[in-house]
Amino acid sequence: MKNKLFTYIFTAIALLFLTSCVEPIEIETSDSPPVIVIYGIFTDEMKHHSVMISSSSPYFDNQPNQVISGAEVQIESSAHDIYAFAEVDSIPGQYNTVNEVAGINGMSYTLKVSVDFNNDGTKELYTAASFMHQSVDIDSIKIRSANLMGRKRYIMYLYAQDSPSEDYYLSRFKVNDILVRDSISRLSLLNDNIFNGQYMNGIPLETFRDATDTSNDDEDDDDNDRRRLSLNVDDTVGILFSRIEEGYYRFINQCRNEMRGESSFFGTPASNIVSNISNGGVGYFACYSVTESKTVVKK
Amino acid sequence: MYIKKTAISILFLLLGIIVSGQNQRQKTEISGTVSDSKTGETLLGAFVYIKGTEQGTFSDSKGKYSLSLQKGDYIICCTFMGYITKEINVNVRTSQTINLQLEYSSLELEQIVVSSRAKDANVKSVDMGVERMNIGEIKRLPMLMGEVDILKVIQLLPGVQSTAEGGSGFSVRGGAPDQNLILLDNTTVYNASHLFGFFSVFNNDVISGLELYKGDLPLQVGGRLSSLLSIQTKSNVPERFGATGGIGLISSRLMLEGAVGKQTSWMVGGRRSYVDIFFGLSSDDAIKKSTLYFYDLNAKISHQFSNNDKFELNVYNGQDVFGAEIGKFNYGNTAASLLWRHRFSQNLISKFSINISNYNCDIEASFDEMDASWAAGIFDVAAKADFTHHVNKHLNLNYGVSGIMHRINPGKVSVKGYSDYDLQENDALEYGIYLSNEHQINEKLSLRYGLRWSIFQNLGNITMYRYDENYEITDSVYYGKGKVYNTYTRLEPRIGAVFLIDEQSSVKANYSHNTQFIQLAENSASGSPLSVWFAASPNVKPQSADIFSVGYFRNFKNNLYETSVEIYYKDMKNVIDFAEHARLLMNQQLEGEIRTGKGRAYGIELSLKKNTGKLTGFINYTLSRSERTIPEINNGRSYLAPYDKTHAVNIVLNYQLSEKINASVTWIFASGTPTTYPTGRFQIGGEYFPIYSGRNEYRKPAYHRLDLSLNYVPNPRSKKRWKSEWNFSLYNAYGRKNPWLISYKQNETATPTAEMLYLFRFVPSVTYNFKF
């Protein structure tokens, strides 16, 4: 909401300074030594859960990062249940649970990855722990169209009770039963900073574009806006809503802030993204439960 | 440590008194009043000096001056800005009264190079690291969009760096922008910027001049580590009703001034930008309905009640307003002061004032059924009493007290349908008491020394959180309304000396200890109007700096050229930075995000200045370094401060081509600002995220720029009241692409690449200025 307003302020300032311009620049930096990258999500959904393992690379390297094969991966619950993973043959570096399994709310889980990443002949152990919070009861979600700065937009509102504790929420979306925009920069976050413990009586969660609005292709739309999801009337929109740990919330936020480099007036000094992987690894291992709710886009 | 410093200061003070007692020789005194030859108005601040000596004084608020001299023949000179310098031959046998009547110069004020200081003051005054400019010098320089902006001008001075392209934020000798105290007629201005810093809040039509103290702050002021920028609005009593104004690309200005009788004068000035007028032409409905403007209003009334009493009321208000269909965003300052100058006797002059300053920032947003607002700011009420006491030649005292009450509102959020979320207001008191003496020990050596005692107290009503070594809250304590729950006292000795080698050269040295109790929670170098101030507290120790400097000053060709070399070293303690990924807004536990450590800055400043003749201007070069060491940042390794610039060169030249035409050239070069480039990356689901090896290890490409301007006065000899001139300027004349932001671009199919955003290439502008 606040950001939206600033977008328009900056559009206005940009109009003022018509001479501002963007062009590529060559930057020479030294290269960081490679570190292991582990990213895994474990939820209460019954399915094959995955963990991805790769290596970091120099920032301006023009090849995709190398994946790491041959690791031993498992998750252990606080009740000492062990879920084994195996590398997927067709996708090197991706490790899936051998069986379809589901996490249990209120338990914590420890990811253990054993691999010889530094090629010294012995395997190192990388671990990370995460707590699976209780799921959230959603009363309903609603989608209404609204005119925002001359554009037709659909806004999704959430109706649910916030708990008295500090909460961090993650939303992912399905359009006509297909999960969309699942990459880290596209996840939707919410915290209860300003309404802690109160009823979320229509908190705006996400803004969508109208697929029939052709003015959407205006060149002054920012990158963020162009990548927004578009909806049509009668689409079924689903939300996958989760209460996540503060650490994972911060991780997503930091990833989003750091990936684009410097930002204008509200930037923070560049700082490394904080990981929960031990032993010098980067990435994250997060557990959460998922609550699903649906609505249909009306005119 | 403090005891030692105090002892040194007291020692100096005693020394002064002893020396002053010994050196009494038979002297006579000449005194009198400086006034306008036509109107008879007394002139304050005229410089009266004995030609060929270093002896001089300023006229006081009643235009009175006095000089003690040994018997002999002298030439008394009197200079005042806007007036023709007067010289009188006198034969001094006994004490006598000599009244000096100055003739008002019929030329435009801006075209006269008359300073209220002696020509050789740079060599002979104890002042060091002080820069003074009058508005005439400032107005001729080329400026972005033709907006004459004093905060941009001071960035051309040695040791002063801009913190972002086109921005009004500045760093003095490696210090942070919030370490500068900005006073407008002695009242604090907390955010001196308009339009996110691209313009400053000072309307040049109402300004008479500025002084920048780059470390050795006058003892009257405290509370900032790096510098004092003191800006004065016009204070001379106009002969008659007059108006000054201008029409520019960004804004228009108008200033009116006049007098009521002989005792009362007034001034009103205003400026408003009008970029948003063009929004109406936009085809985009959303832009059409948007507003974007800023304004400034200045007003001043002064009244002379008696020969010994003068009152002055100053008011400033300015706001930036950004409005769109979905909300409104505005921020701005108010600064007001009521000043009473009173003369107890010829030798004891006082100044009492009440000052109010306020900074507010408000956001309102509403769309569909949502209504939300955010408000933050800082409000000060201050009372000050300052005395200038001339006891004898060796005891020229300045002393006084001040008290400031701060009320900081770090943020209040209200969302319709939910209970309000307010951060706690923070109240604090800041007092200061000071005494300083300036005296000439002998013909070669002059000293100024003094001590300021600063006291800072935190007041309830507040719940204070306590933190453990990991910055996690351990518990909290509640303090009731008005309860003083924490007190810091600091002694700030400041000592300066000048040793005259000969008539044209001197060596100066000084030491100063400064303390800062309130600071800005700000992370971005370009400065954001949303940033909130926060106070020292049991969790946040006051910042302090020990500043040492020495300099050699030399004038050539009868003060035609001024040159100087200054070296400074600044040692800072409890300097503030913020935890990595700190959340500075809407954070009840902001203090848990603060990380403190040490800082140091050092450098050398070379300067060459030519003040008179057809060609005037200055060239300066600064070689400097500024770094911080904070245990929790950059793994405890030292890192460069964001405003560290190894080399900086400023060249400002002004040439009077003819009576009608005056041309200016400015060239700026500075090493690129320190930055953190990613050295590695990790990949998750097709997206790349950076890994850094350390903070500020790289530098952006160097910054340089050439600006040109031309002033054209169509009828310089016109006898008509209406006088006008045109200013044409070209900013960044050779179109250097100076990177403002460096960002990384990536998409699903390609690895990341870097791109830079640059602003302002070849920006021409035209401004029309008038006066009647």
Describe this structure in words.
Residues 216-222 of chain A have low confidence and may be disordered. In chain A, β2 and β3 (50-55) form a beta hairpin. Chain A contains three helices and 19 strands. Chain A is globular and about 65 Å long. The two termini of chain A are 23 Å apart. Helices cover 11% and strands 42% of the residues of chain A. Chain A has two domains: 36-131, Immunoglobulin-like (Sandwich), CATH 2.60.40; 135-245 and 290-296, Immunoglobulin-like (Sandwich). By secondary structure, chain B is mainly beta. Chain B folds into two domains: 26-106, Carboxypeptidase-like, regulatory domain (Immunoglobulin-like), CATH 2.60.40; 130-473 and 484-771, TonB-dependent receptor, beta-barrel domain (Maltoporin, Chain A), CATH 2.40.170.20. In chain B, the strands form eleven sheets. Chain B has a 22-stranded antiparallel β-barrel. In chain B, strands 9-16-17-12-13 form a five-stranded mixed beta sheet. At the A-B interface, α1, β1, β4, β10 and β15 of A face α5, β24, β25, β44 and β45 of B. β4 of chain A pairs antiparallel with β44 (680-684) of chain B, so a sheet runs across the interface.
What are its keywords?
heterodimer, A: 299 residues, Immunoglobulin-like, 2 domains, five-stranded antiparallel beta sheet, 11% helix, B: 772 residues, five-stranded mixed beta sheet, 5% helix
Low-confidence stretches of chain B: 1-25, 106-116
Beta-strand portion of chain B reads over 45%
**What is the CATH third-level topology name of the largest domain in chain A?**
Immunoglobulin-like
Number of helices of chain B: 5
Q: What count of domains describes the coordinates of chain B?
A: 2
Major β-sheet annotation of chain B: 22 strands, antiparallel, barrel
End-to-end separation of chain A in angstroms reads 23 Å
Radius of gyration of chain B: 27 Å
Can you tell me the CATH architecture of the largest domain in chain B?
A: Beta Barrel
What is the fold-level CATH name, i.e. the topology of the largest domain in chain B?
A: Maltoporin, Chain A
Strand order of the largest sheet of chain A: 9-8-5-6-7-3-2-18
Q: Indicate the mean pLDDT of chain A.
A: 86
